[in-house]
Amino acid sequence: MLLHRIEEVREQVSAWKKEGLTVGLVPTMGALHAGHLSLIKKAKEACDKVVVSDFVNPIQFGPSEDFDKYPRTLDADMELCNKEGVDIVFAPSANEMYGEGQKLSNDNLTYVCPPFFYVNTLCGKTRTGHFDGVCTVVLKLFNIVQPDYAFFGQKDAQQVIIIKKMVKDLNVPIKIVQCPIIREESGLALSSRNKYLSEEGKKDALVLSKILNNIKSCYEKGITDVEALKETAYNFLTEKHNMEYLEIVDKDTLENKTNADDNSIALIACRVENVRLIDNIYLK
Amino acid sequence: MLLHRIEEVREQVSAWKKEGLTVGLVPTMGALHAGHLSLIKKAKEACDKVVVSDFVNPIQFGPSEDFDKYPRTLDADMELCNKEGVDIVFAPSANEMYGEGQKLSNDNLTYVCPPFFYVNTLCGKTRTGHFDGVCTVVLKLFNIVQPDYAFFGQKDAQQVIIIKKMVKDLNVPIKIVQCPIIREESGLALSSRNKYLSEEGKKDALVLSKILNNIKSCYEKGITDVEALKETAYNFLTEKHNMEYLEIVDKDTLENKTNADDNSIALIACRVENVRLIDNIYLK
To answer: Is B112 in Cβ contact with A111 (below 8 Å)?
Structure first.
């Protein structure tokens, strides 16, 4: 069932809750791929009813980012969701989410602002305001759908960590379920932005997972010095890769490590054909 | 019933909800007076069960403000609540609300940040971060209690307007009920901070309501020019009054007016004996 209005979603979910059914939410920006489908499958297993939100959220894009260009494929998304037995696809307009004609800025909208420490690192360094926009829309979706569980992919590792922190800090009564990264056979992590890449670009993009896998095997061989682990990346990078960051941090708190340990996560962001790609791996 | 732990509150409210009962929340910082009791009575009328939160919220006080000195009267509060038939008084510790040993700052806590336009005016001008702290704790309490209705006094007019805006912007599924200001027979608006005043200070403090009443009667006589209305205040002020602001703005959006109209509210903040007092009046 495709719904565009907040009130329609509330009514349907409220009817389910009266029947004692559990509800799972999979928040997406559409352009669904097998990564999203793995979240949906997990939600179907865990919950009686599943809502997928399909909304390209303007307030999480910076002025120079790809909001206009971001792939929008609602018909294909609906087909995939129907196949998976999704109960509601919620695809609101920006006006429905933020109010008719509302200027989208901190001047006149209430924002949810994650802690500076979690934001001013990794993707947040170059994407100012991104995680404020993410947390704000996610909390809105939580309040609209009021699910028991919400499902997020580990692909956007910093995002999941920040959302878990928000849920804890604001006592949000929802359980966050984190699901593993889904990859192409080649190792490339699935992303809606892969659509921007040429065939050659997709090959160049394999460097991200190669760097991460190599760091993990170095760690397994006993190398723990973070600087040494990071330096191994230079064996893979060419002039086609514009690396933005490569960090090894605590997987729950994002704190920097001098020596990697079993709680560490390695994260990378890199531009290939000017497409910004991210990937990450747990060292254990 | 006095509860200190978040989980205890959740369990009790969840049991009520399963019975189909409606729940009202009256968020307070304790030091209850007849103003709070009017909110509680309203909640009792409107809801099957009433929760009063009693928590002096550290993150809404500035470093030079009266957090340490703020009156804490839990025993007396409990007595009043019992008399009114309150079902739960929720009096958590700061550790329970914000986590054991957590440093209370934007560095490591998720905040709810109301729009700059609503914050950088009136009380917000001198109380930097105050409304961020208010919205954050109120949203936490909303998520802990999950009431159907929440009750706020018009006394803190800017606060209610900001909370209504937060509820709208973040799609919080709770109805906000705004209740009128309760005054002493003298006209002094009830406030927990009145306890700081000497008998003479209480008399001097009457100037706030006198200024507001006079503005309203001037408006009723046909004076609409905001500057002219504001100037009438000088007939009342003495060296005992340290006025912080007197403004006439739109009662829903806080926008400044050149000419007052029936949607206007006059708001005043003034220090008497170095106690910061606020008051307001609708022009209609």
So the answer is: yes
